[in-house]
Amino acid sequence: MSARGRPRSFDRTEALEKAMEVFWQQGFEGSSMSDLTTAMGINSPSLYAAFGSKEALYLEAVRHFSETAAAGTFRALMEAPTLREGLAAMLHASISCSTQEGRPQGCMIALGATHCAPENERVRLELKEMRRILRDTLRLKFETAVADGLLPPDLDPGSLATYFATLVHGISIQARDGATREELKAVVVHALASFDRATRVNDPAGSA
Amino acid sequence: MSARGRPRSFDRTEALEKAMEVFWQQGFEGSSMSDLTTAMGINSPSLYAAFGSKEALYLEAVRHFSETAAAGTFRALMEAPTLREGLAAMLHASISCSTQEGRPQGCMIALGATHCAPENERVRLELKEMRRILRDTLRLKFETAVADGLLPPDLDPGSLATYFATLVHGISIQARDGATREELKAVVVHALASFDRATRVNDPAGSA
DNA sequence: TCATTTCTGTGTTGATCGATACATAAATGC
DNA sequence: GCATTTATGTATCGATCAACACAGAAATGA
Description:
Two copies of one chain form a homodimer.
Chain A: H1 12-30, H2 33-40, H3 44-51, H4 54-67, H5 71-79, H6 83-98, H7 108-111, H8 121-147, H9 157-176, H10 181-198
The structure holds a DNA duplex.
């Protein structure tokens, strides 16, 4: 590859990981270049040469987060044998990711750039887009299940998708504020109860 | 009161309201003194004389928010004739507050300072405390209902409190990302289904 | 009238922000 | 060896940050 020139003296991925943890803990606007270079163990010019800018580093850190720490959440939803199990696994994975020991609490994507200065609007839109993907994926799952006859035909896929996306995002705020893994697992039980109620056909006693 | 001296040339509450909207939209770290003085229509020294510091202004703005825009959410929970109606009204009020036209989307308290720079930790703790109050109020409501025999004795108040707090906070993230009032109202239906399931005694068919 | 008190606008403070200029170091190709 | 290429460390850039000094303005009380 790039054999020419003086070789980089640090591991790019390791540095990215360190930057990710700083941004995960303090957010984009709460992390200064000084915070980042200190954590990454490099000087400012090396950071700019390797990542471009603070914003580019943040976006790359978020992408790295989604491919590592948050990957389990999506995989859980996609790979479970049934949709119900997938939803439960997704919530459990989200809780696990949000309550890791020795790491910032809450999901970097769920909490990232929910509000920011006007000049950082680009960052907010990028994070908003990543959060949108969760809801769209959920809706597609519900739509497919309805089309396959696995769920009642009158079920509203968008409604359930919004509901589960709301739970995943709410879990991160709870975790950030100190909620434990055990406290949050109770949320899954109630979420599944809603799912069971919404996917049950012709049960007049269900609402009593 | 303070009759002596040159009278203040601006309305303190109006200025606080303007500051609240800036912080609500951009967050604490995303709002600069320049943003604030411009929106408030005053100069920096007047701001410091009237409010003390940027941090003090933010905390006062959040308190003002909780007493005005967010007041309906708590009142709905406390004043409804039944707990079930109170929960539904609380969620609806939270959705209304989070999707007002011409105002920032999402709740200022739910989204406020979920992460920040270490030097602003005091701000984060204050917001975390305000969010904690919601969960504690909910738990107390459930505990009282159990003690009064209105809910099954084996019901876990903390579990349901975490669940509903998660929903309220998740709703704000959805709203901030552009979810409409109608989309979010679907969440209430599913939440009440969970409540009904959790508060039903001896229903072996309920889990089928 | 005039001292006292409080607020306002101008201008500026030191600190920190994100981002680079520049000279040097360390690799390769020939 | 020597030109070329790329990365590094030092030192610093202009801009902006939150906060304030100061003098003048506008009210009061005596």
